[in-house]
Amino acid sequence: MNSNITQEQLLQAKETLTNLVHKTPVLSSEVIDKKVGADLYFKCENFQKTGSFKFRGASYAVSRLGSDQKKNGVTTHSSGNHGQALAKAAQLAGIRAYIVMPENAPTVKKQAVKGYGAEVIICESTQAAREKTCRDIQEKTGATFTPPYDHENIVIGQSTASQELFEQTDNLDYLLAPVGGGGLLSGALLAAKFFSPTTKVIGSEPLGADDAYRSIKAGKRLPQENPQTIADGLRTSLGEINFEIISENIDQILTAKEDTIIEALKMMHHHLKIMAEPSCALPLATILENKSMFEGKKVGIIISGGNVDLDVYYESLK
Fold it and tell me: What is the mean pLDDT of the chain?
């Protein structure tokens, strides 16, 4: 499936998004480097528009719509970052967005989506209800469904974060990205394949939500089973397209324990002086649990987002 995605498409996406997305900074910390024995370069997508890398994929997907599709707008179901990203991308493109959100989604996220000009439709907090509500909206409005990760244009858009990181650094030995649905990691793998083939790409996942690790090991896509992790952005199952790209190109999936995830979150807070979602701590957490593997290496890390639930965030730092 991924053989259809070309280097030219990735370059086109980067060109398309040049004036739409922020070129996010890369941070480093001597203290963290000494603790892990490696040179780490943190790509800060928490500073991206709408607060996460998701804006890249959503913006590129919207840019690829035909004129008739744009007239009818876009729709998706999301309790968080993708909904905000698609709402903002639609607003900038001057088209309608219908975002289906579960009733238990945080109020602050519902308000953020509305603030970007989208229509929020509340549904029951089940996957079936989310999907049915989206289908109803499609039938009623003709809006184009835009999924959060299981779509080629989303993956191509997400690749631009890694493309930028390769330009901002020299000869990375490793690139680590958290993996939930797999959009960010799929994009990182394709960017490395075309623009930095000597860089090994590793997915980072919570031990309590390790469907990607199990899927790669089994050679088939296995669903997430009762995920138990503070990293709420990584509780979803791998998408189909994403599994294909990851299984064909990945070097390794590493997992981390919850205590290590919290330790990594604290390190990033104290030494990088940034607020990042728990999901973003996974790459650093997996390095902490595998120090010998990365010793003396140059390692890129994508910090995926900064849309935190403050109560959960500060509780985790105690």
Answer: 94
